[in-house]
Each structure stands twice: as structure tokens, then as C-alpha cells.
């Protein structure tokens, strides 16, 4: 897995929302910043697996 820029923001409910701009729709969240980071790592892995399964190109950076 390559390196992807992750944007993390706190929402109005205090949850941390993580998004990967290079991977449209790849979004996750967590109650803490650390949890959001772990969750987005899993989301990135699943996103890339899905692209591979359907023979789609993997965007980098």
C-alpha cells in the first residue's frame, strides 16, 4: 500500500472524520484521532482491494 494524504477533522458531535481525497468516497471516523487513523487505514486497504478485484487502476497520491 502506498502513502495517501489523509484529512482529519472533528465534526460537530466531537467525532473525528478521516477522508482520503485521492480515493473518492474513502471516509471513516473514530471517537479519537488515533481511532480515526486506524479506521481509515482499514478503509484504504479495503478500497484498494476492491479496485484490484474489479481490475480498476489504483490512484497514487
UniProtKB/TrEMBL annotation:
Entries under InterPro entries matching the protein: HicB-like, TA_system_antitoxin, TTHA1013/TTHA0281-like
PANTHER family noted in UniProt: ANTITOXIN HICB (PTHR34504), UPF0150 PROTEIN SSL0259 (PTHR34504:SF2)
A Pfam family of this chain: HicB_lk_antitox
Protein name: Type II toxin-antitoxin system HicB family antitoxin
Domain HicB-like antitoxin of toxin-antitoxin system: 4-59
Amino acid at each position: 500500500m502506498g502513502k495517501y494524504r489523509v484529512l482529519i477533522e472533528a465534526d460537530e458531535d466531537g467525532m473525528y472524520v478521516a477522508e482520503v481525497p485521492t480515493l473518492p468516497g474513502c471516509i471513516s471516523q473514530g471517537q479519537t484521532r488515533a481511532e480515526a487513523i486506524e479506521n481509515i487505514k482499514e478503509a484504504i486497504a479495503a478500497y484498494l482491494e476492491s479496485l484490484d478485484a474489479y481490475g480498476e487502476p489504483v490512484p497514487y497520491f
